[in-house]
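This is your field. Have a critical look at the following sequence-structure pair:

***
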Amino acid sequence: MILWKRHGLFFGAGALCILVNSGGVSPLWITGVLLLIVGGMMRWSLTRWQRPTSGRAPVTVRMPVKGRWVALNGPATRVPSHTHSHAQTYAIDLIHLPTEGPEAPPFTRVWPLAHRPEHYPSFGQPVLAPADGVVVATASRMRDHLSRTSLPAHAFFYLESFVRGLGWPCHLWGNYVLLEIGDGVVAGFAHLRRGSVRVAQGDRVQAGQQLAECGNSGNSTEPHLHFQLMDGPDSATARGIPFSWSYRDDSGATHIGVPEDTTRFTPHTTQLP
């Protein structure tokens, strides 16, 4: 697994060989192609390894936010919700939708190309511990970049995502907190605001305690919270774990589970556990 995690190095070396090659189909070009193939096979094998076993019951935790939010890219709509890679099988993205106040800038075709993260209601929202646990890792130095909410910026985002995927997991996660909540289950919080992390490795936290703030670091198109559970602290080799929340949708109905995509909801006041 240690070698397989380094598939990005094979991709990078292969691409470099092809780019510097000036002799047509030369030994250097062939080497580059072979490295790309090897890197692709390593990535494919690792992703297959990260497919979780079926039949595991969802872990019931509290919602890691407060206020009104909308669910996107969640496991209630499809599985895997993102991809099996990086233990994202059951991951979900959350965007803050306040009942009052300014709305997020809309997606545009051309102009403006991007917006500062401060223009989005999600930016700076508290991120809370979903259960009692111990902090196993944090990062908080990556910048909060501009949004990718226009067609040119979105095209750039796909190229950016590919490049980030060749590097270490932190390039995708941005600023993050990993929290071990018992029985080997680790909760991951990604794209956090730079400098907002309030905990450190080894800290014991209680359910509902603020860990950080929502940001726009890492592989993110606009400020939001990426949340997932996994069976280990290394997302490059861990497997995703399903989870459930107690929440209330905009009609007032209470649910235990995960909201479907585009569902607007708030945490239930008597959250479990």
Notes: The chain has two domains: 4-49, 59-267. Residues 4-49 form one domain. The chain has a mean pLDDT of 91. The chain is about 20% helix and 25% strand.
